[in-house]
Design a protein that fits this description.
heterodimer, A: 290 residues, alpha+beta, B: 69 residues, mainly alpha, 80% helix
C-alpha cells in the first residue's frame, strides 16, 4: 500500500507514460524531482551508450531463431528503443526487393572507389554526385546515368554509368551508407558502349532507414573489430538504461518500495523517547534487588 | 564539441566508464526506494560508494591473481 502523501493519480496511466518516455509518468504525477532523476539517468545512459557505439547499440535481430534478450532489456527504455521493432519489419520488406534492380530514378551523393576494368590499375577514391535511372527492358544493363565528382587529388571527373554489374544495397539497413556498385561505360565507334570499369561505394541512407535497423553479420564484426570492448560497454549502458526504467515504471505504479523516506527517522525518534523509560524500569529493578 | 567528446571517450580507459554507470544505478535505484529528495540523495551516495568499494575489492583481487602473468 502506497503512502497517502504520494500523489499516484491514475497509476496505470502513469506507468504507461513512464514506460514510453522515462520520467514522463512521474511528471504526470507531479513528482518532479523523481521525473528529473529518471529522465536524466535512463535517457542519459541510453543516449551515451548509443553515442559511443556510433548509434548502433540498439537493434532487433530479424532472424526469429535468434534470441533477442539484450534487445528486450533495451526495449524497456520505451519509445527511444521501440523504433527497432518498426525497423525490423521495414528491413524484412526491403530484403524482398532484388539488389540488381533500380525501381525509381536516383539522385544521391556518392563516395567510393573507381575500379578500372584492367585489374593492374589501382583503384581511385572518388566522391561526388550520381544520377541513375532504370532502363529495364532496354539493352545495355538495368540502369543508366552519370557520375560527376572529383578524384582524391581534386581533379574533376565525369563518368557514364550503365552496363551490367549493378548492385544496390537494401533500402533499410544498420549502416548510414547504402552500398552501391555500378558499371562505368564508354561509347565506342559505331555507337556501341563498352564497360571500362566500375564504381563501388555508398550513397547515404535516410536517418529513419538506418537508425536502430538490424545489422548485417559483417557490420557487427566490423564494429567489434574497430571498437572492441567499447561496443560491449555501449551495450551494457543501454541494457542498464532499460532495466532502470523498469524500476521507474514500478515506482510510478506502486510508489516507492520502502516508503516515503521519513519512516526510519520517526522510528529513531520514538526509540530515543523509549530509552529513558527503559532506564527508569532498570532503576526500579535495581532498587527492588537492593 | 561532439568531436572532442568522442576523442575523450576513445582516449579514456574503459574502467572509468563504470563510474557514471554506478552513479546512475545508485540514483535510479534509490529513487525507486524512497520519495524524499534528501533521503534519495543520501542513500544514493551511500550506494555509490558501496558499489565503488566492491569494484575496488574485485579489482584488487584480480590484480593480485594476475600478478607476474
Amino acid at each position: 500500500m502506497s503512502d497517502p502523501r504520494i500523489p499516484l493519480k491514475n497509476p496505470l496511466v502513469a506507468a504507461l507514460l513512464a514506460f514510453l518516455i522515462p520520467g514522463a509518468g512521474h511528471l504526470y504525477q507531479g513528482r518532479f524531482f523523481k521525473a528529473v532523476i529518471y529522465a536524466a539517468c535512463v535517457l542519459g545512459s541510453f543516449t551515451y551508450g548509443m553515442y559511443i557505439s556510433e548509434w548502433k547499440a540498439v537493434y532487433r535481430s530479424p532472424d526469429p531463431r535468434k534470441r533477442n534478450l539484450g534487445y528486450y532489456a533495451q526495449a524497456a527504455t520505451g519509445l527511444p528503443a521501440l523504433y527497432a521493432f518498426v525497423q525490423t519489419i521495414k528491413y524484412r520488406d526491403s530484403q524482398k526487393v532484388p539488389n540488381n534492380v533500380l525501381d525509381a530514378p536516383l539522385s544521391e551523393a556518392f563516395k567510393g572507389i573507381l575500379v578500372a576494368q584492367n585489374a593492374s590499375d589501382a583503384a581511385d577514391h572518388i566522391s561526388g554526385y550520381l544520377e541513375l535511372e532504370p532502363t529495364i527492358g532496354q539493352p545495355g544493363g538495368t540502369v543508366r546515368g552519370t557520375f560527376r565528382g572529383t578524384l582524391e587529388n581534386g581533379q574533376s571527373v565525369e563518368y557514364r554509368l550503365g552496363g551490367g554489374n549493378f548492385f544496390l544495397g537494401p533500402k533499410v539497413g544498420g549502416d548510414p551508407g547504402r552500398e552501391l556498385q555500378c558499371g562505368v561505360v564508354e561509347e565506342q565507334s559505331g555507337g556501341n558502349e563498352q564497360m571500362v570499369g566500375r564504381i563501388e561505394g555508398t550513397i547515404p541512407r535516410k536517418f529513419l532507414d538506418w537508425f536502430e535497423a538490424p545489422l548485417e553479420e559483417d557490420e557487427l564484426q566490423d564494429l567489434n573489430r574497430r571498437m572492441g570492448k567499447r561496443y560491449e560497454l555501449a551495450l551494457v549502458y543501454t541494457w542498464i538504461a532499460g532495466l532502470l526504467n523498469i524500476l521507474a515504471v514500478w515506482d510510478a505504479l506502486e510508489g516507492p518500495a520502502y516508503g516515503y523516506g521519513d519512516e526510519e527517522e520517526e522510528e529513531l525518534d520514538s526509540d530515543k523517547k523509549k530509552q529513558p523509560e527503559k532506564k527508569t524500569s532498570e532503576k526500579t529493578l535495581e532498587a527492588a534487588k537492593s | 564539441m561532439t568531436a572532442s567528446l568522442a576523442l575523450l571517450s576513445a582516449a579514456t580507459n574503459i574502467t572509468w566508464h563504470l563510474l557514471p554507470l554506478a552513479l546512475v544505478i545508485s540514483l535510479a535505484y534509490s529513487a525507486s526506494r524512497y520519495e524524499l529528495p534528501q533521503r534519495i540523495l543520501r542513500r544514493s551516495v551511500r550506494l555509490f560508494f558501496t558499489i565503488l568499494i566492491f569494484m575496488l575489492i574485485v579489482f584488487a583481487v584480480l590484480w593480485v591473481l594476475s600478478f607476474k602473468l
